[in-house]
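This part of the workshop introduces the protein records we will be handling. A learned vocabulary of local backbone shapes supplies the integers on the structure line. Getting from the letters to the tokens is the skill we practise here. As an example, a complete record with its sequence and its structure tokens follows.
=====
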Amino acid sequence: MDETEISRLGEDVPLLEGIRTARAIRRLAPDPVPTALIRKVCEAGTFAPSGGNRQPWTFVAVTDAARRAFVAERYRRAFLEYQGPGIARLDDPGFPAAKKRNVRAALYLADHLHEAPVLLFVAGWMRRGEPQTQALFPAIQNVLLACRAVGLGASLTTLHVAFGREIDEALGLPPERPSCAMLPIGWPRGRYGRPPRRSVDTCLFWERFDAEAERAAEESAG
């Protein structure tokens, strides 16, 4: 894939279609991703809004196998502690099928994270002693949408923050620029498509929130 192809890739995906079909892709092929393509999706991240146009984001793309393994080992430990109850219920007939699918997909990612060709960390400046995540997460969403547009699989994870300082030091990030998220990125072993979502009518209100209207809308939606 040359630079001309990369420059054109994803440019014709309609915005709302991309938004509606950018589901989390956790099963990724180990094949390498062109650096120019990672640059392209990160560039999309830089067009996110930020207070005062401070643009506090920093992207660290990890492709080195040893460094990916270092992160993956710690991520899996954090995952097993966090998702232990869900994993224990995978054979429980009473555990909802949708939740089982989610746990299995997340478990697959934890078991195969070291195989993801790119681990993209998003970090940002501190301001008045607080991380500027209100600007970082819009940037992350832009990156995820750009991945959808160019055909890459990606998902948003934050479990690595359980080992945040240790991982940040391995990435060369100083304490005043902590990471808040990690996006495993690669060619998808799956398809993009609309994820299940409740109707907007169950969460959209005019002028004031109305709990009774919310209940009625949820009952109507089934």
User: Anything to note?
Assistant: The chain has a mean pLDDT of 94. The two ends are 47 Å apart (CA to CA). The chain is about 45% helix and 10% strand.
